[in-house]
Write a structure and sequence with these properties.
The N and C termini lie far apart (about 40 Å). Helix content is about 65%, strand content about 0%. The chain is built from 14 helices and no strands. It is mostly helical and about 260 residues long. The radius of gyration is 17 Å and the shape is globular. Helix 5 packs antiparallel against helix 7 and helix 8 packs across helix 10.
Length: about 260
């Protein structure tokens, strides 16, 4: 991948999820520093080939850098990401960077997959979620449990006292509807979120929260260091600097 400089609903739930990153930072102080917990995956010491492509896909999506996104999507599929996993990354990120970028990125993925098919490359389709997503009170309970695990503590803050429905939308939609979908693991979801937030100026506190969350779901300090190096090598220097600064602050907080 060539190095480039990053370029620049009426439904309440959609409008809220577009700004979900702004609310994620308002967790308790305990959520800022990683805590041990039973994670969905074991911790490895280095990113797999598939994992290496995820932050780059997310970063280029967040900045609408379609030429580099095209390259990153191609490399992700070459590294073994299934179509389902790749699609899920782009769908999830609407909650952090907006529906327009998500839809544009999905169109780009369609273009990439079709072009590869015409060249005789049959990418693994992957799978849909293996279980039905709960509804009603069960969805709220599942989403709240997921949110607490990922955040490290129950999510509280003045904004949720001011607008309780905001946290309800987070718990039922983002951490319920989306994070209950098991066709993409939580480590991949956090790698994507970190990549997208690192590429977005002005959301440094949310980036710190997701760096901490990445450790909670089983990514290692070394792996997250690799993320910053990948962003520096293939993307924008300021994006890499934001990621590196967030990681350093989270690690410092965890040692206090």
């Amino acid at each position: 991948m060539h190095k480039r400089t990053f370029g620049n609903s009426s439904l309440e739930v959609m409008a809220l999820c577009l700004s979900v990153g702004a609310m994620f930072s308002l967790t308790t102080q305990a959520a800022e520093a990683p805590k041990s917990m039973t994670t969905p995956q074991t911790t490895a010491q280095s990113l797999s080939s598939k994992q290496q492509t995820i932050p780059l896909i997310a970063a280029f999506m967040a900045t609408s850098d379609m030429p580099n996104l095209n390259t990153a999507l191609t490399q992700g599929l070459d590294a073994g990401l299934s179509i389902s996993e790749t699609r899920e990354i782009l769908v999830q990120l609407y909650a952090y960077v907006g529906f327009p970028r998500s839809l544009n990125a999905l169109n780009e993925l369609m273009t990439v997959v079709q072009a590869r098919k015409q060249r005789g490359i049959e990418d693994a389709p992957g799978r849909e979620p293996s279980r039905a997503i709960p509804v009603g009170d069960e969805l709220l309970a599942a989403g709240t449990a997921n949110q607490t695990k990922i955040s490290g503590a129950p999510v509280k803050g003045p904004v949720f006292e001011f607008a309780p429905v905001a946290n309800q939308f987070l718990q039922t939609h983002l951490f319920g509807d989306i994070f209950e979908r098991d066709n993409l693991d939580w480590q991949s979801r956090e790698l994507a979120t970190v990549g997208a937030l690192a590429a977005t100026p002005g959301v440094e506190s949310q980036l710190r929260s997701h760096m901490a969350a990445s450790l909670r779901v089983g990514l290692s300090e070394t792996q997250l260091g690799e993320v910053t190096e990948l962003l520096k090598k293939h993307g924008d220097e300021q994006t890499a600097e934001r990621a590196n600064a967030a990681l350093k602050e989270v690690l410092a907080a965890s040692k206090k």
